[in-house]
Amino acid sequence: MQNTESRPFASHRFSVAPMLDWTDRHCRYFHRLLTREALLYTEMVTTGAILQGGRERHLRYNAEEHPLALQLGGSDPGDLALCAKIAEDYGYDEVNLNVGCPSDRVQNGRFGACLMAEPGLVADCVATMRAAVTIPVTVKSRIGIDDRDSYEELAQFVATVAAAGCETFIVHARKAWLSGLSPKENREIPPLQYDMVFRLKQDFPHLTIAINGGVTSLDSAAELLQEIDGVMMGREAYHNPYILAEVDRQLFGNSGTIPSRREIAIAMLPYLEQQAGLGVRPHAITKHILGLFHGVDGARAWRRHLSENANKPGAGAGVLLDALEFTR
């Protein structure tokens, strides 16, 4: 079991999206070096993965990652409640229910975006989870699915789930097609409809409403925050992570010196060495920092050196120092 104290819970003013195969504990440690204020999310973890013996593998994290939310995938209220309680015992600051992922695998398990067609079931899940824990239970959804994409249906979904005690909704401002589009296409082809999320905030002023989808700059995040309570950034934060270094100052009003890219890279060295002592190969960590020098001289050589050398037998933390030589 994780033995750490959580930080006071952060607002949803800015968060980094849960991204499968990307936002693992190594990625989140790296992101936390860039921002102290942003709320970080795990990859989606299914209730089955936790309950069938994968608890420690899926839930362990570094104490430095707080504030940290666990995103769960599932549709059985009892299983979700049990996993929420396990997450609370591990020290997570929030549990989030995935009602937005459109992949076939997720649909076959009866969770993800297909649950938008069953607001009553989602409400039961939320109510049961909330009864089991004292930490916040939140929901991440789409604006709709297939032809069920009217504002009225979205508002009814939110009203039903809110009545069960959910006070925070993170809404990906695209609908999802449950068949015909891949998960990648579902992140790009359905048009963004920010106005629907803005309207939700107007109609449900007592709820915390955060928006996700298409956010590629902190300037656009600041503009969105004029309309809603929070912004969640996904792929841009992963591929161009240094953008997170400006979050605390630009979106939270914090003062202080922003570390350079090189300083962030060097700050990763003790973590690489610590994890190597635990049997973690450098590549498992360095793959998440490839974009650190995005857009500056030496970025391509930096990425190439890490990609080609961090997974070699005997590779150690020195591979990062060697890669830094290309960024001078």
UniProtKB/TrEMBL annotation:
<dbReference type="InterPro" id="IPR004653">
    <property type="entry name" value="DusA"/>
</dbReference>
<dbReference type="GO" id="GO:0010181">
    <property type="term" value="F:FMN binding"/>
</dbReference>
<feature type="site" description="Interacts with tRNA">
    <location>
        <position position="98"/>
    </location>
</feature>
<feature type="binding site">
    <location>
        <begin position="212"/>
        <end position="214"/>
    </location>
    <ligand>
        <name>FMN</name>
    </ligand>
</feature>
<dbReference type="InterPro" id="IPR013785">
    <property type="entry name" value="Aldolase_TIM"/>
</dbReference>
<dbReference type="GO" id="GO:0050660">
    <property type="term" value="F:flavin adenine dinucleotide binding"/>
</dbReference>
<feature type="domain" description="DUS-like FMN-binding">
    <location>
        <begin position="16"/>
        <end position="315"/>
    </location>
</feature>
<keyword id="KW-0547">Nucleotide-binding</keyword>
<protein>
    <recommendedName>
        <fullName>tRNA-dihydrouridine(20/20a) synthase</fullName>
        <ecNumber>1.3.1.91</ecNumber>
    </recommendedName>
</protein>
<dbReference type="Pfam" id="PF01207">
    <property type="entry name" value="Dus"/>
</dbReference>
<keyword id="KW-0288">FMN</keyword>
<feature type="binding site">
    <location>
        <position position="71"/>
    </location>
    <ligand>
        <name>FMN</name>
    </ligand>
</feature>
<keyword id="KW-0694">RNA-binding</keyword>
<dbReference type="InterPro" id="IPR018517">
    <property type="entry name" value="tRNA_hU_synthase_CS"/>
</dbReference>
<dbReference type="InterPro" id="IPR035587">
    <property type="entry name" value="DUS-like_FMN-bd"/>
</dbReference>
<feature type="site" description="Interacts with tRNA; defines subfamily-specific binding signature">
    <location>
        <position position="300"/>
    </location>
</feature>
<dbReference type="InterPro" id="IPR001269">
    <property type="entry name" value="DUS_fam"/>
</dbReference>
<keyword id="KW-0521">NADP</keyword>
<feature type="binding site">
    <location>
        <begin position="18"/>
        <end position="20"/>
    </location>
    <ligand>
        <name>FMN</name>
    </ligand>
</feature>
<feature type="binding site">
    <location>
        <position position="140"/>
    </location>
    <ligand>
        <name>FMN</name>
    </ligand>
</feature>
<comment type="function">
    <text>Catalyzes the synthesis of 5,6-dihydrouridine (D), a modified base found in the D-loop of most tRNAs, via the reduction of the C5-C6 double bond in target uridines. Specifically modifies U20 and U20a in tRNAs.</text>
</comment>
<dbReference type="GO" id="GO:0102264">
    <property type="term" value="F:tRNA-dihydrouridine20 synthase activity"/>
</dbReference>
<feature type="site" description="Interacts with tRNA">
    <location>
        <position position="187"/>
    </location>
</feature>
<comment type="similarity">
    <text>Belongs to the dus family.</text>
</comment>
<comment type="similarity">
    <text>Belongs to the Dus family. DusA subfamily.</text>
</comment>
<keyword id="KW-0285">Flavoprotein</keyword>
<feature type="site" description="Interacts with tRNA; defines subfamily-specific binding signature">
    <location>
        <position position="303"/>
    </location>
</feature>
<keyword id="KW-0820">tRNA-binding</keyword>
<keyword id="KW-0560">Oxidoreductase</keyword>
<feature type="binding site">
    <location>
        <begin position="234"/>
        <end position="235"/>
    </location>
    <ligand>
        <name>FMN</name>
    </ligand>
</feature>
<dbReference type="GO" id="GO:0000049">
    <property type="term" value="F:tRNA binding"/>
</dbReference>
<feature type="binding site">
    <location>
        <position position="172"/>
    </location>
    <ligand>
        <name>FMN</name>
    </ligand>
</feature>
<feature type="active site" description="Proton donor">
    <location>
        <position position="101"/>
    </location>
</feature>
<keyword id="KW-0819">tRNA processing</keyword>
<dbReference type="GO" id="GO:0102266">
    <property type="term" value="F:tRNA-dihydrouridine20a synthase activity"/>
</dbReference>
<feature type="site" description="Interacts with tRNA; defines subfamily-specific binding signature">
    <location>
        <position position="184"/>
    </location>
</feature>
